[in-house]
Design a protein that fits this description.
Layout lengths: L2 E2 L3 E4 L6 H7 L4 H5 L8 H9 L4 E7 L5 E10 L3 E8 L8 H16 L4 E7 L3 H9 L3 E12 L2 E10 L5
Parallel strand pairs: 5-6
Antiparallel strand pairs: 1-2, 2-3, 3-4, 4-5, 6-8, 7-8
Helix pairs in contact: 1-3
Length: 166
Amino acid sequence: MTLEDDVVRLRPFEEGDVPAIVAACQDPEIPRWTAVPSPYTEADARAWLESDEEESFAVVDRASDELLGSIGVRHLDGGIGEVGYWVKREARGRGVATRALGLVARWALVDKGLGRFQLRADVANEASQRVAEKAGFVREGVLRSSLVHRGERRDVIMYSLVREDL
């Protein structure tokens, strides 16, 4: 399945994406905010691609098919989906994450029929908070000490989107 707008395309990951995934995940900002291992290896990329923990999409440039990032949805109980994403350093600041998040949110709420689509952003991750807000997500509040990241408890801001918000 593919989702797209006039700038980005979300498509299934392919074996040929492995080198670009590995290269992107060398950026220390990605493991700083996500569960991506550090250092990140080709074996990590292959294991992740084989995993079924989430529905993941490659975020690519629509014109060139260059890998720009990743966005994935985890299905929780009660018709709730939770999204996570990263964008490679060279593609940041261009609205890539906001576009991808908007596309996947509409897909999750309309096509998949989820009742709630949420994301958690570390309170210090201002870039991810801006992405959520630009994509129309509603800030619900701070969940204190709700995330364990690399052995440390972190506060996160909970954002959500429901079908009526579209």
